[in-house]
Design a protein that fits this description.
Helix content is 73%, strand content 0%. The chain has two helices and no strands. The longest helix is centred in the middle third of the chain and has 76 residues.
Length: 131
């Protein structure tokens, strides 16, 4: 049996009919050579990847900008809160000083009334403690 013959008994190399005319491996006509097909597919794939990368880059840039604005806002709020909290001890000292000065002024103006009031308050607290 001849190894060059096909199953149908014709030999394409010998000028016989080609059972698969579009198959270049079998000697048929090919509208686009194999390397051109591969290059075309590669170019299409590159273009698709470039489009996806451009869209992804735009989205990442947009999200990055939003994240930066959110971080800046949080930092501003935290700074304001820290400034307010750092001023609290000074405000407490000022209030304590005013209350102490007011109590000293009141005791100096009415010493006997202050002592009598302290005795009454002490007696009432003692009675409440026994209950």
């Amino acid at each position: 049996m001849d190894r060059t013959s096909t199953l149908s008994g014709t030999n394409p190399a010998a000028g016989g009919a080609n059972p698969m005319p579009g198959n270049p491996a079998l000697g048929g006509a090919n509208p686009m050579p194999g390397s051109a097909r591969v290059e075309n597919a590669a170019m299409t794939a590159h273009q698709t990847v470039d489009k996806v990368a451009d869209k992804a880059t735009a989205q990442v840039d947009r999200l990055s900008g939003s994240a930066h604005r959110a971080v800046n806002s949080a930092a501003d709020v935290a700074t304001s809160a820290a400034e307010w909290a750092s001023s609290l001890p000074q405000q407490a000292k000022e209030v304590q000083t005013r209350v102490t000065e007011a109590a000293c002024t009141s005791i100096r103006a009415h010493p006997l009334t202050t002592v009598a009031g302290a005795l009454v308050v002490g007696y009432l607290l003692g009675r409440l403690a026994r209950l």
